[in-house]
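Subject: Sanity check before I submit

Could someone independently write out the structure tokens for this chain? I want to compare against mine line by line before I put it in a report. The sequence has 120 residues.
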Amino acid sequence: MRHSQTLNDTEQFLPLPSADFQLLLILAERDLHAYGISRAVEANATGVALEIGSLYRMLTRMESEGLIEERDGPAEDDAPESRRRYYGITPLGRRVAKAEATRLRAVLDLAESKRLIALR
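---
Independent answer below. Compare away.
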């Protein structure tokens, strides 16, 4: 369980679970609805798979943590029958994603120094 959050505190979220990081990376590009997020995860082929039920639980949790927020969809999605909920990354979510990317870069640099991988 995570500690209570403050807007300047990103370290409490680290290390970020792979699926959470993947979702933040996707939403860093643009706001999406759950199905769009699911498709983007599949398209990225990073080994992270999200079942729709798990994705909705994850969205709810990450929204309550302040990492993402519900947003208005695009104008073409204004049809009365449309019930899609769009999500976008918050400023906190962007800082957490950046901190996780920095952390992972340090891990990869260490792996490279141990000659486990070649990055460049």
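---
OP: Matches mine. For the report I'm noting this point. The mean pLDDT is 87.
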